[in-house]
Structure formats: C-alpha cells, structure tokens
Amino acid sequence: MENARARFDALEFDAPLSNGFWHGEAGHRRIAAQAPLAVQATLASARASLGQGPIDEAARLLDRARKLMDSEDAAEGMRSFVERREAKFTGR
C-alpha cells in the first residue's frame, strides 16, 4: 500500500481540470454522448475516491474496468470506432 501511495503522490497532472472542456452546456452534451455505464462507473469511482481515498479506489479500478469491457456498450464503442461512426450506446 505504501508503494502505491508513493506512485500516486508522484503523478503529475498535465491538464488542469478547469480547462472548460467538460463545463457548461457543451460539456454536458459531451458527457451525455458517452457510454452510460462508463459515465456511471466514473462517477461511482470519483465518489468512492472522495469518501475512501484515491489509493483504495485505485485498487478497485481494474475490476471496474473489466466489468465495463464485458458490456455491450464496450463492444459497440469498438465497432463504432472501427467503422468510423458515432456510437449508439444502450446502457447494457
């Protein structure tokens, strides 16, 4: 656990959170266009990180990602990328 904390503390964040990309009406539209399961998982992870700490949540991140990658939305995301089209996510 101590080693994980040292790695987390050493991270440098290049882009400020206040760059405006996700803010305002345009940002809300960008978020709404994403896969619903991924948005829900991101929010759950952020909330858990605030409540339980980022190190504990980082330990659960891989499990969350594996569950997402098994979803129909993940397959649709890959298909839409390969086919160069907008994804149609269903939340499954």
**What is the radius of gyration?**
16 Å
Beta-strand residue percentage = under 5%
Which sheet architecture does the biggest sheet show? none
So what's the overall shape? flat
Count of individual helical segments: 5
Helix-strand pattern: HHHHH
Structural class call reads: mainly alpha
CATH fold assignment of the domain at 28-85: Lyase 2-enoyl-coa Hydratase, Chain  A, domain 2
Query: Roughly how many Å apart are the termini?
Result: 34 Å
What is the CATH class name of the domain at 28-85?
A: Mainly Alpha
Name the helicity range. Answer: 55-70%
Kindly report the name of the CATH homologous superfamily of the domain at 28-85: Lyase 2-enoyl-coa Hydratase, Chain  A, domain 2
| Oligomer class | single chain
What CATH architecture label of the domain at 28-85 applies?
Answer: Orthogonal Bundle
Give the overall average pLDDT. 80
Uncertain stretches: none
Number of strands: 0
Plain-language structure description:
This protein has a domain at 28-85: Lyase 2-enoyl-coa Hydratase, Chain  A, domain 2 (Orthogonal Bundle). It has five helices and no strands. It has helices spanning 2-10, 24-32, 36-52, 54-69, 72-82. It is flat. With 92 residues, it is an all-alpha fold. It starts with a helix and ends in a 10-residue tail after the last helix. Helix 3 (36-52) runs antiparallel to helix 4.
